[in-house]
Amino acid sequence: MENAEVVFVGLLVAVAGLVILAGIVRVPYPVMLVVGGLGLGFVPGVPTFELDPDLVLLLFLPPLLYSAAPIGAQPPTSSLTAALPSRHAGLMEDARAMLQRGPSGAG
Question: Which of 1, 10, 25, 64 could share a disulfide with 30, CB 3.0–4.6 Å?
């Protein structure tokens, strides 16, 4: 590929533009990058790349998921933490009772 530098700089400019556009439109930037990648796949003359799916799973997906995690909806934790000790005690009592009965359930 004789013009790899031009393609690389063009991709960097496209990524920067998509991240800025994601901030303007108020969409998580990983979503905008996926949409931009889909659009780039339909441009004629762009060289094709084939990546190993394991490589994508190990190198590219975790940073995208990690950076997008705080953007997602989070349930209120105050009501959940108040109920945890009583649920924990009940589960421990159930487990203790099952262990005392044995594997057959006869007790």
Answer: 64
Comparing 8-12, 64-68, 95-99, the range with the smallest average pLDDT is 64-68
Q: Locate 45 and state its tokens.
A: 């003359």
Task: Convert the pLDDT of each residue in 6-21 to its tens digit.
Answer: 878 888 999 999 999 9
Q: Which of 65, 15, 69, 66 lies closest to 39 in space, CA to CA?
A: 15
End-to-end CA distance of the chain: 75
Q: Taken in order 56, 59, 61, 64, is the CA torsion positive or negative?
A: negative
Half-sphere exposure of 18 toward its Cβ, with a 13 Å CA cutoff?
Answer: 19
| Residue ranges in 26-105 assigned as alpha helix (H) | 29-40, 53-55, 61-68, 78-101
pTM, to two decimals: 0.47
